[in-house]
Write a structure and sequence with these properties.
Length: about 140
Amino acid sequence: MLDIKAIRAYLPQRYPFLLLDRVTAIEPGVRAVGYKNLTANEEFFNGHFPDHPIMPGVLIVEAMAQLAGVLGFVSTGRRPEDGIIHLFVGTDDLRFKRQVVPGDQLILEAEIGTCKRNLYKFNCRASVDGDLVAKAQILIAEQHL
């Protein structure tokens, strides 16, 4: 399990763009599970939409990508302090199935798909209360700084 302090060692994002609160399970080279707790105080709910707050889909994708990034770093035994950054470069087969609203706990899952050179493909899912919210293949490139 990784708490927020450990997650920050792997991800350069900070508030309000750090969208991963905890990693609850991680199997290097295989998969990771984590979550984001959503409260009414999230910045994005103020504008999306004030009378009917919904988490923007692009932020759900970003949350999945952040978990995939952590899994990538843990799997390779590297960290950003080693002069490496993971960049989100694309998604395939993205589908949204349900809205995410204040009070939800967004459960995130990432599994390593393929790796060619410095390009990783992860199979990701997001759910709330066991209901699928979104799924996608997330592509991340490892770049040396």
